[in-house]
Amino acid sequence: MERRYTYSTGKVITMPSYAFHPGTGVDRRTVRLFDRSQVQPGTTHGGYVAYEHVTVEEKGEGENLGKTVYKYHVPATYGVKQDGIYKATVTHVAAYPWRPVDQEHIPHITGTERYPFAPNPMYDWNRGQLLEEKVYDNTGKLRAEKIYKYKNYYAAGNKPYSVYGIRFAALIPFDMSGYTTLIRYSKFEYLTGVASVLSQVTEKNYEAGSAIPFTCETFYEYSPNHLKPVGIKRTREGHGDFVLTRYKYALDYYVKGMPDTDPTGLLIKNRMNKLIEQTEFIQLGGVNYLTYAQMDDYNGEIYPTATFSLKPATPITNFKPSSDEGMTSITKDSRYKQEKRYRWYDEYGNCRETTDSKDGVSTVVLWSYKGKHPVAVIRNATYAEVNMKLGATLMNGLAAKLVPTKDDFKKINALRQSLSKAEVTTYVYYCDGGPSEVINPQGMSTEYAYDNRGRPTLMYYVEKDEQGQSLIRLQKLYTYTPYKFD
């Protein structure tokens, strides 16, 4: 499989800034708003260039397999003063002539607008949002598409809160007759209590030879108790009935006006947006039929201690959503069954032991690289068993290490023999975070190579033959074409 990426023209987000600029003459200098960026360019989803369209073409065994075209929201053009509720910040100039001989001030001159505008970080914060994706077959015919719509969500009422700031600089030319001071100033308006959130996704699939697509629509609603988490998701296929998904978070169990009520134990730990319960229904004739429910139990801890689920054989109408009736604890439907149990979190919040309640099999995950990456996944073993083999010193200190040592990996790989019933998968990473080698329980190694930008260039699988020699079974190559700026 080969994928080729092509990009439309894009925009680089410049951030103009005030700075001193040396002039000519004795003791003469100016302070001005540069028309070119004096600082590092801004980014859009980690990249310096924001592209409106990205095309991904696929080929397999030399054959064209079609393409997918993505369309994104690009940054607003500086010079446009307002985009919806977002306002650009205008630079004004006001003159204050002053004669030093008689200490007399000449009357104020009215300010005028100048370009470019000083940056308002709120102005084009929609940049990078995915607007459309279209899938074409190898003949160029449209086969599927997704259209994304967004809306402004307000924490209170129907408008954001405004916080203002000001930035200014002075242009001070010097001559023998006196001084003239030009003040440049910009008033920044920051919007708070507002977020740009996904409101609707429309999916269309075109069957071969049909001009009428099969349509699926998903609508998103947001809880009034939160700024961004989705409260309700409604999905409808064609003109059929809705599939309804409800989400309840820690703050939804809090009784307003009664500060002592915190049945989840998470509010006091500032974890108010933690998802507690997710339920899925089919809406038929105005009646909700439950098909699935899942709930996390925190038991007063900062991380979940167990997950419960309800999977009825046939949809039910008498489901009882979890609530804070007791005000100090959460009550849930009696038909919930424990699905998983979590124990032994490290200092970075990573769970180190998960037990499947159905078969009782535990899986241990060992973390390192300052808690960023797992270095071993050990199935069919408990934390106590692994701790006994590796020792408390290694178990307690592994997560905090910047890079595990060769001796650490030697001890971890020895678990393949010392815990004979366990299935051990190990991971090694480069300094920039990409995996360099993964060894599965059967001993097959997958190795990776990257270029100097951290992009994968090569992936290959390595097996050992009966004589212990390495055999390369499969390779994947990645190539990149440099982008040229006009």
Shape: globular
For the sheet with most strands, the description reads: 21 strands, antiparallel
Low-confidence stretches: 15-39, 99-112, 114-120
By DSSP (H or I, 4+ residues per run), the number of helices equals 4
Helix content: under 10%
How much beta, percentage-wise? over 45%
Structural class: mainly beta
Mean pLDDT across every amino acid position: 76
Summarize the helices and strands and which ones pair or pack.
Elements: E1 2-7, E2 10-12, E3 18-22, E4 29-33, E5 49-51, E6 53-60, E7 63-72, E8 82-83, E9 86-87, E10 89-99, E11 104-105, E12 109-118, E13 130-136, E14 142-154, E15 161-172, E16 174-175, E17 178-192, E18 194-205, E19 214-222, E20 230-237, E21 242-249, E22 275-284, E23 287-297, E24 306-310, E25 337-345, E26 351-356, E27 362-368, E28 373-379, H1 383-390, H2 392-397, H3 406-413, H4 415-418, E29 423-429, E30 435-439, E31 445-450, E32 456-464, E33 470-477
Antiparallel strand pairs: 1-6, 2-5, 3-4, 4-15, 6-7, 7-13, 8-9, 10-11, 10-12, 10-17, 13-14, 14-18, 15-17, 16-17, 18-19, 19-20, 20-21, 21-22, 22-23, 23-24, 24-25, 25-26, 26-27, 27-28, 28-29, 29-30, 30-31, 31-32, 32-33
